[in-house]
Amino acid sequence: MKNLLVAQSGGPTAAINATLSGVLDAAKKSSSISKIYGARNGIQGVLRDTLVELTNLVTQENLELLRRTPAAALGSCRYMVKDWKEDETDYQKIVEVFRKYNIGYFIYIGGNDSMDTVRKLSEYCTEKEIDDIVVVGAPKTIDNDLALTDHCPGFGSAAKYIATIMRELEREVEVYTPNNVLIVEMMGRHAGWLTASAALAQQKSKKVPYLIYLEERSFSMEKFISDVKNALKQYHAVLVAVSEGLHDANGKFICESDDDLHQDVFGHKQLSGTGKVLECAVKEQIGCKVRSIEVNLLQRCAAHQMSATDNEESWNLGAYAVKIALQKKSGKMSALRRVNQQPYQVEYEEVDVKDVANVEKKVPDAWINEEGNGVTQEMIAYLNPLIQGEMECCYEDGLPNYFIIE
Amino acid sequence: MKNLLVAQSGGPTAAINATLSGVLDAAKKSSSISKIYGARNGIQGVLRDTLVELTNLVTQENLELLRRTPAAALGSCRYMVKDWKEDETDYQKIVEVFRKYNIGYFIYIGGNDSMDTVRKLSEYCTEKEIDDIVVVGAPKTIDNDLALTDHCPGFGSAAKYIATIMRELEREVEVYTPNNVLIVEMMGRHAGWLTASAALAQQKSKKVPYLIYLEERSFSMEKFISDVKNALKQYHAVLVAVSEGLHDANGKFICESDDDLHQDVFGHKQLSGTGKVLECAVKEQIGCKVRSIEVNLLQRCAAHQMSATDNEESWNLGAYAVKIALQKKSGKMSALRRVNQQPYQVEYEEVDVKDVANVEKKVPDAWINEEGNGVTQEMIAYLNPLIQGEMECCYEDGLPNYFIIE
């Protein structure tokens, strides 16, 4: 009987350990799997032979804590394996380690780059006629930019966190008169899904106007200043949500727009964010009270404000990846298909990783309003089911408790 | 029978509306108070005569929602009344508005500056022999720097939020190898209490070392770099908590240390934070992966992660302020006295606002470790009871619901 190996890769999310929990639970329950191993720090852990046996850790109690633990409990990496046609070294080492631990099933949880690793590794095995190693992907990314899945595990929790803090910041920005502008910068270099989730808070706003700018549209500073001025005619406070990857019509990032002056003391180009650049522009051109906030890493590890829907789906996608692996379908990824909108209903399916790897799913243009400063009802309808339900943290002495793989 | 007026001032907190709720509840229950009014935007709302009657809003249901609503539901201001010996204009207007609405009790919820307003206004009334207007303060500030109260309402929730995200960021910083430094900047220009609360997460850390720098001690960049290097010998990840107000031995703020180069495109001095300056220093002098996060406004409005202890005490301090007012004790503030450490127990008392106004309570030097890069067990023992217990949010469609005073 073969063993199963699982690893995590790419940027952390609040729910990637829920997917790991789903993998572990399904593997433990399968009569076709003997031992369960985890590789530390993704595929690098395989290459370095830093595997850890997890079989005895898989208890109901541990999994309940693990699924509530943010970031990657097994560690992560950003390592890209080379094309095997050019250099087989990594692949030979990987197969050698798999043989050593009698690994028959490898589940790789990750985003775009990780799915590319799944693709290459499964292709390599096919080419070399290695038919007793099955390689399957399970998706994750807060960026929500993976193709062929309705949405990505981790995104719903990040969206819920962002919408929650936007609602709180809306209370905050309202307290002072006169005019008061608050700019909130979200992650996402290549897709505006996270920024768009501010609209979930916007739809509940009774007074405060929101302006939302996604990187799918070119950004015009002139239009932005005019939008803010108009919003301030409506109310004394304005909340602005922006993507870090905002760029002008020439594709130049807004945060790079003043190269010469944004340098730090060592002459490095200052990593001043998009929000900070807009803050300076509002100060200069409107002259009112203005502040910018970079939500930064908090949006991808806020397990204390997880979406129960996201957590459950993330778990199920892990379990489904094991199911695919047991059917010996190498080179597949578990995915979500939305089969009904109201009531919201999803089904789990398998998709080819080759169609997922290196593709980025952008926000559809039709979901951005004409003015380019907000989103449409289609976007709200898409986002709303993903943030439903709350996960209770396991509190100990006033703070959430987490599961650590020693 | 006289009416009661309540107003809120200074920076928002997650719990200032819990104090407002306590005031409203006690006022409604008192047979000595007829109508209840709120002034919009603090004392400015009195001066502008923008009062709103709240009597009929005071229901159990509304108060439960209000006590979970962050920031100041009545709005806030940063207005300082002049010394009445120099200019009586404001005072005459205030008393005129009080007369118009038959106000006999005025409760002002706020920090240092607001307590100064309470002091001046109560002194003015004494001087002018106005004996039917009682002015009482109720404390609030996330900075926890008010004198004569064991701790300040709002601080416990901010501390719980900070410790929670530090625990999450600890998971986050751990996932990548090799060396990885994460710097988190907390609010507090003049006292390091908020930054110190990172130690609540530190004491639970199994692996990741923490370095905590409070502004009560002079900051040395050389020592900091050496501390980080030492920590990286211990483990591959380090978490650093710093106060925005860190300064060198000459009192110069760290965030001002590179004036010439940190300018934005308009020639403004860049508001680059302390964390960003330290990030650049680590990059330059150690050369490892490093990132900085400014927690910013999120720490003072994170009602979704409130401390139940803080919320209850905040409510009680509001109710106690009404009790003081009904006893006609003008110029007092409600305060907390810790009467027992284990089990934690507090009592409510009145203190003279004149001893609170314009005084800042710093972190005692004895609670900072010898090296100046962490806190002692006394600090942990002080902080720990303040973050106990969780407030359940009132969720509606996946997001916390709030009470808005229309």
Task: Give a written overview of the molecule.
Two copies of one chain form a homodimer. Chain A has 406 residues and is α/β, with parallel strands linked by helices. In chain A, helix 1 (16-29) crosses helix 12 (308-326). The first copy, chain A, is 34% helix and 19% strand. The two termini of chain A are 27 Å apart. Chain A is elongated and about 70 Å long. Chain A has helices spanning 16-29, 42-47, 60-66, 89-100, 112-127, 155-174, 193-196, 199-202, 221-234, 274-285, 298-301, 308-326, 377-383, and strands at residues 2-8, 33-39, 51-53, 103-110, 134-139, 180-186, 210-213, 237-243, 289-294, 332-340, 345-352, 395-396, 399-400. In chain A, a hairpin with a 2-residue loop joins strand 12 and strand 13. The model of chain A is unreliable at 259-271 (pLDDT under 50). The longest helix of chain A is centred in the middle third of the chain and has 20 residues, at 155-174. Chain A has a seven-stranded mixed sheet, sandwiched between helices. Chain A is built from 13 helices and 13 strands. The interface between A and B is large, with 76 and 74 residues.
